[in-house]
Design goal:
heterodimer, A: 385 residues, alpha/beta, nine-stranded mixed sheet, 13 helices, 11 strands, B: mainly alpha, 3% strand
């Protein structure tokens, strides 16, 4: 009943503009920023944050176990490609939640990527995303996705927009001035008239040299940081990595294809932090992936679609570095359907804590209007929760 | 909506629009339905249908021998590249590689995308082309791992040749084509009890990539309620299906292309959706039998009917339309021309109560059709060839053919293609063409007259005078601002939606 209620409410809000009084958070946490990093393809939690002290790890991963992990705590290590993030760990600005994920066990990329963005466990049931809904409830100002299409996760907030490096010459004002009138009877197009007008004006003033930016994840992360560091910049940013984490074959271990993806993530976060400058202290970075990968290697020294993975939180909003986990081990009897890491912490609970911290929403507000979740005692202390 | 407006909207809905200087079809539904019975030629095409001059050295490969040879050469070049990287200095190597790989990447993709878009633009059966775009999207194969670039175009064009038969044959040919077997890693999917595994010839074992997508994307969809076990059993049935290329293991006389390698196959029987697929005397027949069943499964009909209606009609298509297409599928056991005709009929019946904002590719083609214009003509012979290319424009619009990021294809819903960036970019691409056409028109009175007629005919035919977009475009036109008129026209709701 409850879920249906918020689905209806949010679907109807698509395309409406923001209205109403500023919410309570405006006094509490006006400068906080949230960067989401979508890691599509299914990040391997056992590669990113290996359980280095679990004696079953190297047995079950003869070719793909990481052997030179950087030390974390509680028996976990960090993949050596994540050296920048290890620096954050040492600066008390990195948290890991392990054996986590949305409570979805279908192992489909496309359902999984829908659910991780909608926050609704029934695939394709929602036209809005959990971050978009949270921003709407919090009456938050704009968010920006560094992409061309708008990802589902930010939909539901009419002030979210998209941005991507564009070489094409801007439109002059005599055209963009007309867009509002051109689209005024079309509720799906109308919200974008104003943002397009502003973006083209800005680019007219900036000149073309600024748009030779490469399209690598780290360059896009820098762009996100430059936007979000501004005092009146977007509160929420989103980086969308490609499908690369789907390493069915030859995934590698200390190096290799999964390691390369992690390195991209690491460089992106490093670049973002640098671009955020002083704003970094008000920032939280959050990773989102659709599922983890099989605990055992498959027959092509890769891993197939699994269930539980891990989630990274980084940034100045954290006060301590810690691994949050309800670890059950890697023996067959401890695994979900004898093959995957079980979800022992609902990742929606992690995201709820992030929304509480960044937007000042209450857990009750989140549960009823944004994201249903199962709270976990194992998250005690995370983000002050 | 008057008859003219309706016919024009339908041409945009099921094709790429009708030029404002040409007569609309008298009977739009019959016009569309007549295009699905015959497979038209695809080529690098010019206005009038002739082959693009200067592209003699860029044949579209059709014969499997040629396709597999190109694939093998590409892989060998990649391998040589690895060795070269050790011999050469960094800069020297980068230069060598850019030059050497260019043929297999940029030029190959340019050729195939140009063939696809120019055939849609200038061919005689745009409705067939749009249906092909649907199927190439449904059975997605994109550049990915294993240097599969040269397989992508031939695979996608192969799909066309099966669009006038049964869905079963389309499905079979999609799943067993080397393009698919390589893209979804099935060429490494090896039965754990296969001869090759037991004798230690390979370290490969099962790989679920294709098995899962066969059930999820191509046929049943998860709504059908199959289990992980069904995926695993399907994967075993698929084990050993791989590609044969002219490498050192190729024996003289062996046909290139699809290859069932019994040594890598999991023998015995497997059970999918409660039915046992047995291997007595015909191990490769298990896949035939499974495809036979999946192709006519009611869940497949439902899945495909719904997907087609979303693709062609509306994000939430009318239930009756989905049912009609589904029934046509079930009644004809997936006879594709019958299914396509049912879909086209539903598009016509529900034209005014549904609306569709097309993909960047569909919009770009429509824009060219409305401008009676050509595609960008630059042929990127060299890595640094300057000039606008079609696949780069598509990339700017958010659909960088053929580089689809995921196996579930490009977005099919209108709402997925609406964002600040996507709309801004459509306007800027429109501006690019508007400037180009304005320059081309220049002071030539005949061309100027033709341009005037096009704009006026479009306004009269595709817009409603009581709508604000008509007013806005008409005002720009009366200000004699041609570029502004064209830009606003092509991003107006009247032309963005069909």
């Amino acid at each position: 009943m409850k879920r249906r209620h918020f689905l209806q409410g949010c679907l109807s809000s698509v395309g409406l503009s923001l209205a109403g009084a500023p919410a309570a958070w405006a006094q509490q946490a006006p400068n906080t920023r949230l960067l989401l990093v979508l890691l599509r393809g299914g990040m391997d939690g056992l590669c990113a944050v290996p359980p280095v002290q679990d004696s079953d790890y190297t047995r079950i991963r003869p070719n793909t176990a990481v052997s030179n992990a950087l030390p974390l705590a509680q028996g976990f290590g960090l993949h050596p490609a994540l050296a920048g993030m290890h620096g954050l760990w040492q600066a008390r600005q990195l948290a890991v939640v392990h054996n986590t994920g949305f409570k979805y066990t279908g192992r489909s990329h496309f359902e999984g990527q829908d659910i991780m963005q909608s926050g609704v466990l029934k695939p394709y049931a929602s036209g809005t995303g959990w971050v978009g809904r949270a921003m709407e409830v919090a009456q938050s100002s704009a968010g920006v996705s560094i992409s061309i299409p708008m990802p589902l996760i930010l939909r539901g907030n009419p002030n979210a927009t998209t941005q991507f490096p564009n070489w094409m010459p801007p439109l002059n004002a005599s055209m963009t001035d007309q867009l509002q009138q051109l689209w005024q009877n079309d509720a799906m197009l109308a919200p974008y008239a104003k943002p397009i007008q502003i973006a083209n004006q800005q680019q007219m003033q900036a000149g073309r040299a600024d748009f030779k930016e490469a399209r690598t994840l780290q360059a896009l992360a820098r762009l996100a940081g430059q936007e979000m560091a501004l005092d009146d910049g977007p509160r929420v940013g989103l980086l969308d990595s490609r499908h690369g984490f789907d390493t069915h074959a030859s995934q590698g271990a200390n190096t290799g294809s999964h390691a390369e993806r992690l390195k991209e993530l690491d460089q992106a976060i490093t670049q973002y932090k640098q671009a955020m400058g002083a704003q970094w202290k008000n920032t939280l970075v959050l990773t989102v992936t659709e599922f983890g990968r099989t605990v055992a290697e498959n027959g092509t020294t890769g891993t197939d679609h699994g269930v539980g993975s891990c989630c990274f939180l980084a940034g100045g909003l954290l006060t301590e570095s810690k691994v949050y986990a309800d670890w059950r081990g890697l023996k067959e009897k401890d695994l979900f359907e004898a093959r995957d890491l079980p979800i022992t912490i609902d990742v929606a609970a992690v995201y709820a804590l992030a929304l509480e911290r960044v937007f000042g929403l209450s857990s009750k507000q989140i549960q009823s209007t944004v994201l249903e979740y199962t709270p976990s005692e194992h998250l005690k202390g995370l983000l002050g929760g | 909506m008057n008859q003219q407006q309706k016919a024009s909207r339908y041409c945009r809905r099921v094709g790429f629009g009708c030029s404002p200087t040409q007569a609309l079809p008298q009977d739009p539904l019959a016009w569309a339905q007549s295009q699905v019975e015959r497979v038209p030629t695809i080529d690098l095409m010019e206005r009038g249908g002739s082959r693009t001059p200067g592209t003699e050295k860029l044949p579209l490969l059709w014969k499997m021998d040629a396709v597999m040879t190109a694939f093998h050469q590409h892989q060998e070049t990649e391998r040589a590249s690895f060795a070269k990287s050790k011999e050469m200095g960094n800069r020297e190597y980068e230069q060598w590689r850019r030059q050497e790989m260019h043929t297999y990447w940029q030029l190959e993709h340019w050729k195939e995308v140009q063939a696809r878009t120019s055939t849609a633009r200038f061919g005689q059966q745009p409705v067939f082309e749009k249906l092909w775009h649907f199927w190439a999207n449904h059975f997605m194969v994109a550049p990915g791992n294993q240097n599969n670039d040269t397989l992508v175009g031939p695979y996608q064009r192969m799909l066309r040749t099966h669009m006038t038969g049964q869905f079963r044959d389309l499905l079979w040919n999609a799943v067993t084509h080397p393009g698919m077997l390589v893209y979804l890693d099935n060429n490494r999917n090896t039965g754990p009890n296969s001869i090759a595994a037991k004798r230690g010839w390979t370290k490969d074992s099962v790989n679920e990539n294709l098995g899962r997508e066969l059930l999820e994307l191509f046929t049943l969809s998860p709504a059908a309620g199959y289990t992980q076990k069904d995926v695993e059993e399907t994967t075993l049935i698929l084990s050993g299906w791989r590609e044969k290329k002219p490498d050192k293991w190729h024996k003289p006389g062996e046909p290139l292309g699809t290859f069932f390698d019994f040594n890598h196959h999991e023998a015995g029987s497997q059970t999918v959706l409660g039915k046992k697929y047995s291997a007595i005397f015909r191990p490769d027949g298990k896949l035939q039998d499974l495809i036979d069943d999946l192709a006519v499964h009611p869940a497949t009909a439902k899945h495909i009917a719904h997907k087609m209606c979303v693709y062609f009609m509306d994000d939430t298509p009318p239930a009756s339309a989905v049912v009609a297409v589904e029934q046509a599928f079930n009644a004809s056991k997936g006879h594709l021309p019958t299914v396509h005709k049912a879909l086209l009929e539903q598009c016509w019946v529900h034209l005014e109560s549904t609306r569709k904002l097309g993909s960047p590719e569909a919009w770009l083609l429509q824009t060219l059709v409305y401008g009676d214009a050509d595609l960008p003509a630059t042929i990127p012979w060299e890595p640094d060839t300057r000039g606008i290319k079609t696949h780069h424009l598509l990339g700017d619009l958010g659909q960088e053919l053929p580089r689809c990021p995921q196996p579930n294809g490009w977005f099919i819903k209108s709402s997925d293609w609406i964002s600040k960036e996507t709309l801004d970019r459509r306007a800027r691409v429109a501006q690019h063409f508007a400037r180009l056409w304005a320059r081309d028109t220049g002071a030539d009175p005949a061309k100027r007259q033709a341009m005037r007629e096009r704009v006026q005919a479009t306004l009269a035919r595709d817009f409603s005078p009581n709508q604000p977009d008509y007013q806005v475009v008409q005002t720009a036109w009366s200000e004699r601002d041609l570029i502004k008129t064209l830009v606003l026209m092509h991003v107006s709701p009247s032309l963005l939606w069909s």
